[in-house]
Specification:
638 residues, alpha+beta, five-stranded mixed beta sheet, 14 helices, 26 strands
Length: 638
């Protein structure tokens, strides 16, 4: 019995065939035509190719660009399940070595797939026609997946096929994926995959399919190896560039992240040093997505490279002026962006602007209010605090702060919310030196003060300490609660466990799979046990003298309105209640916000004066016994 998806697929194929017959009743074609588009098919089929009269069609099945020496098309091409075919590119040994295996401590040793382990494959067909004058047409590329309903590791995630001439990846002189002919083990920077810039970008064609196997995009683009020290790892992350030179379009005109963002560059991210789960960056981004700094969206993909399965990745946005223009509604040509992302892509004078800000905040005494107010004009202090509070909670250290840090501002100020010329922060690369068992009890307040003169200097200002401590506890009480973390982890494990294990077997064999459950427990253990340590360090390192007390909030009707507490909007349970904890050193701020059809009436609490009860926004001190307060909303008449 066929399900709805099978019926729809059959109708699409039938309609496409009928269209060809109706349009080409006299078999005259003006361009190269394939009888089937890229996609997933349950049964083998014969692919037919058509071209203009007087031309000859040539094609390849190995990802190489067709030329006069390629196979000439004379009969339909049988397209069937390519998985039993010989492993070719995955057998390349120049992508790894004993040197790499010794230095990648986060990874099990990379394993080249054995001859008797047939990794999954798709059939890649590249074709062009040659006219009577010997000129070749543009190359057309399609990818065909046969019988994938029964294969393990692809359910509910997207698929991407990247096709490029194999020399672009594996040639010792020009291949971007290999160590290469110039590699010197004593100088790892000489490896091809460590080279940067446009000279090491290669032309490719990509096909993207969603989890329902609908073709989202078939596009010519550029690819490069992405990352810093993680470039030595296998598999490697890749940047994918939309450029007019490839197909006339400088954007990916499809909503890849369900945010209406039409990117010009995206990244296929392997997880960096998070080799087993590929989990940490996605998890932290999800936990703090509503904070006042930039984060990336993550969409899971299984990738095929020149027809061979190449693992599980996160498709993410890439921080650039197009990203900032979309999400912050600023002119993309009026942006200064700096950081250790891809330094060659940013103008040197951008760093001069940032250096001026950093020098001021480093060498001026921030305990003096005038200096601190000037600092607040230079940076968005809430963005800085949100970002640093997050990194400190997850125990980021070693290569942060100072590395893996990015920030931006507009050049010329304007009237928009983000056009004030202040610096704002961007989160990325939290996959190493964080969220580990050895970091649960780590005092990252002290380690951050030691590494960042700016953070240490700011911590001498009382206003900063109040804002930071209050924000930090906001995050502790919402983003980093056990319930919130467990919900996201459980959701992602349900989605990604089988695809991730397929990935681990492909690159690391059974040893990789054995580590999966241990890595999940490490992350869960970190979040389950981090709070008491880091909350105590906040008290000790900020010289707080108060106690940790409960704050109990309640709404008379959960459908009538909500409460903003400091920088958060708590989620109330079915009974309209919420509980958090705050130090008594600093007051909290509450704002009652009525939903449509309701209005705010009053607060109810023994801690309130009569004048405060009807104010929508109030500030309250917390006593050692705690604070309980209820917001009353009523329906608005008419």
């Amino acid at each position: 019995m066929m399900n709805g998806r099978h019926v729809l697929a059959c109708l699409v194929v039938l309609c496409g065939t009928l269209a060809l017959l109706l349009i080409n009743t006299d078999n005259i074609y003006t361009e190269l035509v394939f009888s089937r588009e890229s996609g997933f098919y349950e049964e083998p089929f014969e692919l037919e190719l058509y071209s203009p009269p007087g031309t000859q069609i040539y094609y390849t099945l190995d990802g190489s660009e067709p030329n006069i020496n390629s196979t000439r098309y004379t009969l339909p091409i049988l397209i069937n399940d390519a998985t039993p075919n010989e492993n070719v590119y995955s057998r390349c040994t120049d992508v790894s070595s004993e040197f790499l295996s010794r230095t990648i401590t986060a990874y099990p040793p990379y394993i080249t797939p054995s001859l008797n382990y047939s990794i999954d494959k798709c059939t890649v067909v590249r074709s062009a026609y040659r006219d009577a004058d010997g000129n070749f047409s543009e190359i057309k590329t399609e990818s065909y997946f046969i019988g994938y309903e029964e294969k393990v590791g692809y359910e509910n995630i997207n698929i991407i096929s990247i096709v490029t001439d194999p020399d672009n990846l594996f040639d010792p002189d020009i291949g971007i994926y290999v160590m290469g002919s110039a590699f010197d083990e004593s100088q790892p920077q000489t490896a091809n995959y460590n080279q940067r810039g446009f000279a090491w970008e290669r032309a490719a064609t990509i096909q993207l399919f969603d989890s329902e196997r609908t073709l989202l995009l078939n596009k010519d683009c550029g690819i490069r190896i992405h990352g810093g020290s993680s470039r030595i790892n296998v598999p490697r992350s890749m940047n994918i560039y939309a450029r007019k030179q490839y197909d006339g379009e400088g954007r990916f005109y499809v909503d890849l992240f369900d945010t209406e963002y039409m990117a010009d560059t995206v990244t296929l991210f392997t997880g960096g040093n998070d080799a087993i789960l590929k989990f940490r960056d996605m998890l932290v981004s999800r936990l703090i997505i509503d904070r006042n700094f930039a984060t990336m969206n993550h969409v899971p993909y299984a990738m095929f490279l020149d027809g061979e399965y190449w693992g599980v990745y996160w498709l993410t946005e890439k921080y650039d002026n197009v990203y900032l223009s979309h999400y912050y509604d600023v002119d993309k040509d009026n942006i200064i962006l700096i950081g250790s992302l891809d330094p060659e892509e940013y103008a040197e004078n951008n760093h001069e602007f940032c250096t001026q800000m950093m020098e001021y905040m480093t060498y001026h005494d921030m305990s003096i209010d005038a200096h601190y107010q000037n600092a607040c004009e230079l940076i968005d202090m809430q963005s800085y605090i949100d970002y640093y509070a997050t990194e400190i909670y997850i125990a980021r250290h070693d290569d942060w702060p100072g590395g893996n840090e990015a920030l931006w501002r507009v050049d010329k100020t304007g009237n928009g919310e983000y056009e004030d010329g202040r610096w704002r922060w961007m989160l990325y690369d939290v996959n190493s030196a964080s969220l580990g068992a050895d970091a649960i009890s780590m005092d990252t307040f002290i380690s951050t003060m030691d590494k960042s003169p700016i953070f240490y200097n700011l911590c001498q200002n009382e206003d900063f300490k109040r804002q930071f401590a209050t924000t930090f506890m906001d995050l502790v009480n919402t983003s980093f609660t056990t319930e919130n973390v467990d919900n996201i982890i459980s959701e992602q494990i349900a989605l990604m466990e089988e695809p991730t294990k397929t990935n681990l077997k492909r690159f690391f064999g059974d040893e990789g799979i054995k580590k999966y459950a241990d890595e999940v427990l490490k992350i869960q253990n970190f979040y389950d046990n981090r709070k008491p340590y880091i909350v105590q360090y906040l008290k000790d390192d900020f010289d707080l003298t108060g106690t940790l007390a409960s704050v109990d909030l309640e709404i008379n009707d959960a459908a009538s309105g909500h409460i903003i507490l400091n920088t958060i909007e708590p989620s109330f349970n079915a009974d309209g209640k919420w509980t958090g904890e705050y130090y008594t050193d600093y007051p909290i701020t509450l704002t009652a916000v009525a939903d449509a059809g309701y209005h705010f009436v009053q607060w109810q609490s023994d801690a309130l004066s009569e004048d405060q009860r009807t104010n929508e926004t109030i500030q309250l001190s917390i006593e050692e016994k705690g604070l309980s307060i209820k917001a009353i909303f009523e329906k608005t008449e008419n």
